Amino acid sequence: MKSKKALGATNGLFPMLTVLVGASVNGLPNFATVGNVGLLTPKGVVSIGLAASRHTGSGIRDHGTFSINLPPEGLLAETDYCGIVSGADTDKASLFSLFYGETPTAPLIVECPINMVCRVIDTLAFDGTEVFVGEIVETFCDEDVLVHGGLDAEKIKPILFDLNSRSYFGLGKRLGPGWRIGRTLRRPTGPLS
Asked: How does pLDDT run across 106-147, given as a tens digit for each residue?
């Protein structure tokens, strides 16, 4: 048997999808790099976690809206930069071409192939982190990332982040079809002996 090492309560959920979260702060568009992002329901309830002191969080609290922009590998430097500097003293929005859906307080990035506008439905606080739970109300995508009417991860080329090595990664190769590859393990059903 393989030996295992106990690490205590260590988070092993890496790498993480990296996104740019947008909000209007003091009337100006601002973006923060976020790795603490998750899908809470398949129909479109998401969460983002920001340090409570983050400039972008104040805009989300003020307006109850935010955007999630999925940057491709080609925006790696800009994505990292948005996580290094504060929007309180830096115009990070000037790095991108912006557009808006029907929600003027959720700026969207043209260069990102996927853009989602979210309305805050709950806010939670944990150890100096604010978790905004949002309902997706509008989604935009580049037409060239669609395959058979659905989004194609290989065409999107998302950025992944590993906190342990403090490094970014690209998407690896496709391993197999979901809800199908596991069928190779089907065994005959019947009473257990």
From this structure: 999 999 999 999 999 999 999 899 999 999 999 999 999 999
Helical spans, DSSP H, in 11-106: 55-63, 76-84
pTM greater than 0.85 (yes/no):
yes
d(CA 26, CA 89): 12
Residue type, 83: G
**Range of the structural domain that residue 181 is part of:** 16-185
The total number of structural domains that make up the chain: 1
Q: Residue 125's domain is classified under what CATH number?
A: 2.30.110.10
Cβ–Cβ contacts within 10 Å for residue 143, how many?
6
How does pLDDT run across 141-180, given as a tens digit for each residue? 999 999 988 999 999 999 999 988 899 999 988 888 888 8
How far, in Å, CA of 114 to CA of 138, rounded? 11
Structure tokens at 74: 């080609």
The tokens describing 152, both together, are 């194609």
Is there a domain that residue 77 lies in?
yes
